[in-house]
Design brief:
The chain is built from 6 helices and 9 strands, in the order ααβαβαββαβββαββ. By secondary structure, it is of the alpha/beta class. The chain has one domain: Vaccinia Virus protein VP39 (Rossmann fold), CATH 3.40.50.150. Strands 3-2-1-4-5-9-8 form a 7-stranded mixed sheet, with helices on both faces. A two-stranded antiparallel ribbon has the order 6-7. The longest helix has 14 residues.
């Protein structure tokens, strides 16, 4: 991955412009059916805050990002929000949550980093905690728009998550093209 991307003010502003019409409302609607309103949720990779603003309507949500520039943007845009700077692989958070949500974030992790992230998610979730993550569907990896993208299949995601999570839902959906994405919802074992 280009370690500088998302770290500069220019790249953050570019991403905000490119993603202005993209949100995870449909994913969050499904997430809501598995997690009670008012539950504490950690959003990994909050970015410009689009999904955070949807999540906050139903959950006590903490946004996070590995970019100081995104955190500055989030705090300036949402002065009453709670945001922390953390890496999605290591999830260096002290508090526990009822749910963890990410929308096309974990695909930036290598297989080893994803394994580490899943272990940390398990550790920072309360008993019976719920995860909701989306991924690009496919095989292999590439650098796309200066970022590392690790594609996944339903089988690969099951093999990553099943040790720590009961997979409740694992379905393909269309973000831009038919069945180009995967949604995984799981419960902490």
């Amino acid at each position: 991955m280009n370690p500088g991307y998302y770290k500069t003010k220019d790249s953050v502003e570019e991403y905000i412009r490119l993603a202005k019409d993209v949100n995870g409302r449909a994913l969050i609607d499904i997430f809501r059916t598995y997690l009670q309103a008012g539950s504490s949720v950690l959003e990994l990779g909050t970015g410009p805050g689009t999904d955070w603003n949807i999540l906050k309507n139903d959950f006590d949500v903490t946004g996070s990002d590995n970019s100081e520039e995104f955190i500055k943007h989030l705090v300036a845009s949402n002065p009453n929000g709670r945001f922390i700077e953390i890496d999605a692989a290591t999830i260096n958070a002290d508090e526990k949550f009822d749910g963890i949500y990410s929308n096309k974030v974990l695909h930036h992790l290598t297989d080893a980093e994803l394994t580490d992230s899943i272990k940390r998610q398990y550790e920072v979730l309360n008993d019976n905690g719920i995860i909701c993550h989306s991924f690009w569907k496919g095989e292999g990896s590439e650098v796309c728009k200066r970022l590392f993208v690790n594609y996944h299949t339903t089988d690969s995601l099951r093999s990553f998550f099943e040790e720590h999570f009961e997979v409740l839902l694992l379905d393909a959906y269309a973000e831009f093209d038919e069945e180009d994405s995967l949604l995984l919802i799981g419960r902490k074992k």
